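Input.
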Amino acid sequence: MALNIADLFEHAVDVAPEKPAVQVGDRKITYAELESESNKLAHFLAAEGIGAGDHVGLYAKNSIEHVIALMAVLKIRAVGVNVNYRYVAGELDYIFDNADLKGLVFDRVYADLVAEVSPKHQQLTTFVGLPDPIDVDDDSDVTRFGGVMLAEAVAGQSDARDFGERSPDDLHIIYTGGTTGYPKGVMWRHEDFWRVLGGGIDFMTGEPLEEYDQSKKALQDSLVTFPLSPLMHGGAQASLLMHLFAGQNTILEPKFDPVRTWEVVDREGVQMLFMTGDAMARPLIEAYEAGNYSGQTLFAISSSAAIFSKAIKERWMAKFPNAVFTDSVGSSETGFQGTGLQDASALSTDGPVVGIPATTVILDDDNNLLDPVKDVGKVGRTARSGNVPVGYYKDPEKSAKTFIEIDGVRYSIPGDLARIEEGNRITLLGRGSNCVNTGGEKVFPEEVEMAIKGHPSVYDVLVVGLPDEKYGQTVAAVVQPREGQKVELEELRTFLRAHLSGYKLPRVLTIVDEIPRNATGKAQYPAAKDLALSAQQAGTAQSLDSTTTTDGAHA
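Output.
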């Protein structure tokens, strides 16, 4: 058994070639067409010298072409690297280098950034441009750095499936944020990725599947699934692959738009909706309540990667009483760690409450396993054994801290805190680090602090997350100005735009006389958050109105 991602997709192609596979807008592509087009691009990449183990960046919004590119990379046993399309030049420069990219598939609209950054990376020699799914008339020149457009790349290429045998040990890498603000590449064996992120284990029962179990479902009527997040994030990519393995029809949109979402749901009869907590759930339910939509084809509504609050869940459940609501928890380092069916009569205000499989445990501060029966009510860190990643790419130090052996068992410990509940359940309380989760995007304080400290009027700064109705959390900066200097939020944001993506920019600024630190200079983040909250409540903080300000932060 190969238990390789490309093989699992091909099994579904063989069972149901004429079924719809992916749809974006009015355009649909069948499994046979997706197979043919990805084979052509795979042959082009191979002719360019890209092969097993080589890294190819996927720098694109959601589109059919993005899916074609992902499958083409997998088919030749290369490694697809997800690249955040909101990155500015400095961030792209880091990931092009850290990920050792040899090839890049990118939306044409980003050609200027590629032209600026790519000359610094001599190993990056193959470039394939995709038509932009939003700016369809963009005609940026991709030839200036040796690029070709997708249509030219696949012209005359064979669509044969003749790529040779693959291995379950092939690597699949998901880049995720790190505690220093720099993304880390989580290395998964294909089989392990499938088991915990691609449906290779039944999420509700914990039973492992056999290689052809998912493709057999392709003989059944298709489910219409709609993951709303961008494929540049591991969760959306996993959702897409899981449904491709089972012969389902996946709808994608290049940009989140709540009104458009309901139009698609009603037009296409969407049955399963996947979203990112309140950042999507709130505008969606507000658009539904304000509009004239049905949406009653939805029978499964799932949230992951961010807080889906009690108040917003209640509004959803009132409008969709016959749908099943689930909260799923996990990370790029663990895969899905638990899924919980949400009961309208018993919603938690602390965090998602989920049942956990036997492979998920809770550890105390000394890495001792807590007892799920005797230690009900205790808080610890989640850890997963079994199918876990190989480690972080080119980072043995961080790998050693996250992937730990305890009593002969290897665990992945991403740092999430959880409270043990009755009935083999946990309440997820959040990441133990100071990570700010704004609309599903991870923002790491140290990175933002370093950028802010480059401002000539800033003496010291700490960055924290504050509650936000729209995005779950908002980025807040607590700043100590240099003596005699002033710092204004709008001017600071303008300064930072050259260094940070829009979603990382602070939306709240609190000015203090002195940053809270201990005697050794260690940051006191809880004290900084208290200062920011107090200033916000007193009306002395500078802040932006998230309903009227548009900075591309969560486009």
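The radius of gyration is 23 Å.
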